[in-house]
Structure to design on (1019 residues):
């Protein structure tokens, strides 16, 4: 297509290209690649942030796997992943409703994304108060006679995780709905119309027609949600359960924050955790891409 | 519409850049050719700045006025006050600032082990300390490295001996048929019986928030039960790895007593996750709360001076080596950073803050117990029978804060795992074993 | 399925949608209503309407005067605006190159930049903190801005490159024939035609940086320069005082993001969606 250009012109273009990306490369090297390299290096030392920095080999990693709450953290991260199918499912239903333009759809479309606009600090604080021992949820439960359910939600590992899953799902429905809605614009409207003319009900339309056609979109939503669950939920955990009780609701990324502030300043340990987190994320994303053979699409 | 947005955005960028440029100049360090400028970090709560001062504007605070007086007495010197909102995080921030060489001249941090961990970024101020201060101020060991006399002294104690005891709601106690003024419960059995009586009357005996990141309530009271049995030396031995926490019967007894408060129903059911116990006490819904000298004024403001009482923690056993005492001592300190360019002037400032005149002025703003041994109760204008007078008496015989005496790893473990022990999800024996395991690992 | 069953399902689902919508708005409503109560009233009656005789506007007054919430707003605004500015400055230029120019190593560089998107910020935050500490940048706006650039450049470039790829080459060639240089192409072709993605970036990253907690909490703790969310979080997190006072702060802090969303809502929803379909 551009073979009619002179080689000088191509050279200029190449030069322009390289100069255009140099600032970005520079920033990324400084803020991303160098710190990642340093984090990996430090994870093999007993760095305390000051002058102590002896090489300890895999000691940090051994400590992480044998004498730390690591397995609890991992379990918690995976439990929180339950929110992913939930949010996709509900988001899908909402998206289909919006697409089919139920009454007031414009209003709903605006409202459904609102949780993403509110800071996690606010949402977390409200969830914490709502699920407190004498909070609204329990008050309502008591009033309608379900007293046995009005427990200390945040005091038990299982129920506290439930509250977190509930919160993360609620927060993410809007985002999933918007993403799926956009994906649905690729579907020829005639297909859905003829399906309903043929008598397909809402559920059939959604799951037998829409879903197969937007598989890639759902996949995108799933992978982003999974990565976010591992790395973006800090503010919610901090505001709702503070990682507790004990370590029962801490995740790996939350633990890194905790280790940063604890008086013992074991940064070698903390960076070890960070490296493990990185490996988990890379494994999950590459596994997903490999499985769906979409590697080339990311170029 | 789009065009307006872009214009709008460009305007914001321009304004922001101007603000930034003007703001940037504010954060630069003073050069040494200018007159002396000292930077001092102070904690936003329970230190020099009292709870009632937080709602006032900054120039009305005691500490701001104290700095002004110092500046007037030392022309050419300016003191900049920086308030740290999170006392625990301040240690971390100080550490990294020290690494970068721009730590403040003086910083308000927790005494004992908390600042010993920062020995690489603090300096020895022994040569600058006036002799009278060494004689008249107590608690020097808390700012001397490793508590060992003769080691470098890296700061001054904060002039506030913060003693810990139970605050109680006099009305509820009276309604329950008890009188803590005449008959305070001094043994564990009496104490538990009193709580049972209160509970029987339908009141909430005690409340605590032990899941908020730092197990203050344990360190205010239950740690006293631990240390009073055999003194501090065995604990320090365990902390340095020479003995095992798992073998420490005193620890296990204290933890069981701590647990009992919960299992017998004297504490709020959500003690491991709640955050409003203090509010509940101030609202008059709770009979007693573990607290200390720092909460007295707040409580009196909310409940009325006549309605607030203070009572010592009971003795856990009559065989305990230490009796009728309480946790206290200068738990906070003002350390001098290694990179301070004016250590002599900084020490002068710290000496000033600890001087008799200044301590008396501070006592007008907060109810404090001085760490000087040359101030009498009359000079502090303490009303006999008031809580302030009680605190003053009690402070003559305190046990230094256990958490400031333990190494950071152990303190971290307590903070994370005590909520589990409190609510019975972890046994005291398991906690002790975990402490030993983590000590080995480090 | 019978017609009535279909209708019932539709009604039920519609009701569920209504419940969801209410749950989305309720938090803001709750916060606002309770910010106007005083502490005792709130503790007694958290769900009712505030007492209209005695609205606690004092909470807002204290927020503004003593807590200096507008100063905090200013700090957060400066960070957000500068972050966006540099994101665009660096990102537009780089995306143009990836989309339209040919040079050695283009695909490798692009891949590296995009894949760094998956490295969570927690991995780098401690080394970054130490690095900035040595450069005396901790507790300045720049530490947060630079960290945000590291976090968001990849995503932004991904989005903009995809959009710019859709710009027809003919237009660019026509401009070149007219004598347009590098910056002219950017200014007169790329930016105007790539406007949807650019505007989306501005709006989306404004909201994200305004609401963010983790990064500024670690890098910017100085009381004078911290952001509004960090200040509110430290007010809330422990042992503290007056929930209604906190609510006033939270509500004020939520307003800018909500305003931006309300005005630009259509763009955001379209844009986020398009980012996924590329």
């Amino acid at each position: 297509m551009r073979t009619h250009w002179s080689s000088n012109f191509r050279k200029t273009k190449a030069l322009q290209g390289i100069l255009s990306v140099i600032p970005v490369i520079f920033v990324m090297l400084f803020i991303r690649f160098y710190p990642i390299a340093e984090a990996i290096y430090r994870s093999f030392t007993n760095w305390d942030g000051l002058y102590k920095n002896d090489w300890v080999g895999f000691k940090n990693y051994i400590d992480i796997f044998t004498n730390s709450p690591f397995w609890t953290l991992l379990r918690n991260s995976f439990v929180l992943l339950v929110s992913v199918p939930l949010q996709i499912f509900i988001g899908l239903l909402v998206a289909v409703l919006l697409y089919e333009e139920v009454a007031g759809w414009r209003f709903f479309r605006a409202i459904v994304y609102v949780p993403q606009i509110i800071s996690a600090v606010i949402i977390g604080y409200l969830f914490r108060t709502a699920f407190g021992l004498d909070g609204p949820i329990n008050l309502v439960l008591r009033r309608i006679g379900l007293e046995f359910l009005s427990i200390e939600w945040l005091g038990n590992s299982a129920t506290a995780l439930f509250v977190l899953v509930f919160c993360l799902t609620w927060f993410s429905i809007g985002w999933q709905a918007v993403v799926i809605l956009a994906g649905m614009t690729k579907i020829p409207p005639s297909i859905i119309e003829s399906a309903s003319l043929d008598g397909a009900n809402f559920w059939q339309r959604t799951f037998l027609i829409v879903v197969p056609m937007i598989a890639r979109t759902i996949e995108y939503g799933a992978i982003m949600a999974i990565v976010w669950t591992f790395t973006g939920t800090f503010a919610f955990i901090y505001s709702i359960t503070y990682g507790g009780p004990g370590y029962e609701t801490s995740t790996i990324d939350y633990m890194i924050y905790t280790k940063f502030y604890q008086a013992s300043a074991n940064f070698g340990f903390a960076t070890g955790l960070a490296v493990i987190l990185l490996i988990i994320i890379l494994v999950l994303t590459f596994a997903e891409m490999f499985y769906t053979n979409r590697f080339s699409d990311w170029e | 519409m789009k065009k307006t947005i872009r214009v709008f955005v460009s305007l914001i960028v321009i304004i922001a850049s101007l603000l930034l440029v003007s703001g940037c100049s504010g954060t630069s360090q003073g050069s040494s050719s200018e007159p002396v400028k000292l930077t001092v970090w102070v904690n936003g709560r329970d230190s020099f700045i009292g709870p009632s001062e937080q709602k006032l504007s900054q120039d009305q605070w005691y500490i701001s006025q104290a700095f002004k007086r110092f500046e007037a007495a030392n022309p050419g010197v300016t003191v900049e006050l920086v308030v740290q909102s999170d006392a625990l995080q301040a240690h971390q921030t100080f550490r990294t600032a020290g690494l970068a060489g721009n730590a403040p001249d003086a910083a308000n941090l927790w005494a004992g082990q908390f600042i010993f961990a920062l020995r690489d970024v603090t300096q020895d101020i022994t040569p600058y300390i006036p002799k009278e201060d060494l004689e008249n101020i107590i608690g020097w060991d808390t700012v001397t490295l490793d508590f060992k006399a003769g080691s470098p002294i890296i700061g001054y104690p904060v002039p506030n001996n913060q003693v810990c005891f139970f605050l109680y709601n006099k009305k509820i106690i009276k309604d329950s048929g008890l009188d803590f003024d005449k008959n305070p419960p001094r043994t564990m059995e009496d104490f538990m019986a009193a709580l049972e009586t209160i509970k029987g009357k339908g009141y909430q005996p005690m409340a605590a928030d032990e899941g908020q990141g730092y197990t203050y309530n344990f360190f205010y009271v239950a740690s006293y039960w631990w240390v009073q049995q055999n003194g501090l030396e065995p604990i320090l031995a365990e902390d340095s790895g020479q003995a095992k926490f798992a073998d420490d019967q005193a620890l296990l007894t204290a933890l069981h007593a701590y647990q009992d408060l919960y299992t017998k129903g004297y504490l709020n059911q959500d003690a491991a996750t709640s955050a409003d116990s203090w509010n509940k006490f101030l609202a008059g819904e709770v009979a007693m709360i573990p607290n200390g000298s720092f909460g007295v004024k707040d409580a009196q403001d909310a409940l009325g001076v006549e309605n607030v009482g203070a009572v010592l923690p009971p003795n856990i056993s009559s065989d305990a080596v230490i009796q009728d005492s309480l946790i206290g001592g200068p738990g906070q300190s003002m350390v001098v950073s290694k990179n301070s360019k004016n250590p002599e002037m900084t020490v002068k400032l710290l000496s000033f803050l600890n001087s008799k005149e200044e301590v008396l002025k501070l006592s007008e703003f907060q109810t404090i117990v001085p760490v000087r041994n040359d101030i009498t109760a009359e000079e502090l204008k303490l009303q006999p029978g008031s809580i302030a007078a009680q605190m003053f008496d009690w402070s003559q015989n305190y046990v230094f804060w256990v958490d400031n005496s333990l190494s950071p790893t152990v303190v971290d473990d307590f903070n994370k795992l005590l909520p589990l022990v409190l609510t019975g999800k972890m046994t005291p024996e398991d906690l002790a074993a975990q402490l030993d395991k983590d000590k080995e690992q480090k | 399925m019978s017609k009535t069953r279909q209708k019932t399902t539709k009604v039920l689902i519609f009701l569920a949608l209504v419940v969801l919508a209410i749950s989305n708005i309720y938090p803001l409503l709750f916060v606002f209503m309770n910010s106007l109560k005083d502490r005792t009233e709130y503790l007694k009656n958290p769900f009712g309407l505030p007492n209209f005789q005695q609205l606690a506007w004092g909470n807002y007054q204290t927020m503004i005067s003593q807590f200096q919430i507008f100063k905090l707003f200013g700090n957060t605004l400066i960070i957000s605006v500068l972050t966006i500015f540099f994101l665009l400055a660096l990102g537009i230029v780089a995306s143009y190159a990836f989309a339209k120019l040919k040079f050695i190593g283009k695909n490798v560089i692009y891949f590296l930049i995009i894949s760094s998107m998956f490295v969570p910020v927690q991995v780098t935050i401690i080394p970054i903190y130490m690095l900035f500490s040595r450069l005396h940048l901790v507790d300045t706006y720049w530490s947060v801005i630079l960290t945000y650039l590291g976090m968001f450049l990849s995503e932004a470039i991904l989005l903009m490159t995809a959009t710019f790829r859709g710009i027809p080459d003919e237009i660019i060639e026509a401009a070149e024939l007219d004598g347009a240089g590098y910056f002219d192409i950017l200014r007169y072709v790329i930016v105007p035609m790539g406007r949807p993605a650019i505007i989306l970036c501005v709006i989306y990253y404004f909201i994200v940086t305004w609401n963010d907690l983790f990064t500024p909490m670690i890098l910017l703790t100085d009381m004078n320069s911290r952001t509004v969310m960090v200040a509110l979080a430290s007010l809330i997190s422990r042992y503290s005082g007056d929930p209604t006072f906190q609510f006033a702060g939270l509500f004020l802090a939520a307003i800018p993001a909500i305003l931006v969303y309300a005005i630009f809502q259509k763009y955001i929803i379209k844009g986020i969606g398009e980012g996924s379909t590329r």
About this structure: The interface with chain B takes residues 49-51, 63, 67, 128, 132-133, 152, 154-155, 241-242, 244-247, 260-266 of chain A (CB under 8 Å). Chain A has 14 helices and no strands. Confidence is low (pLDDT under 50) at residues 295-299 of chain A.
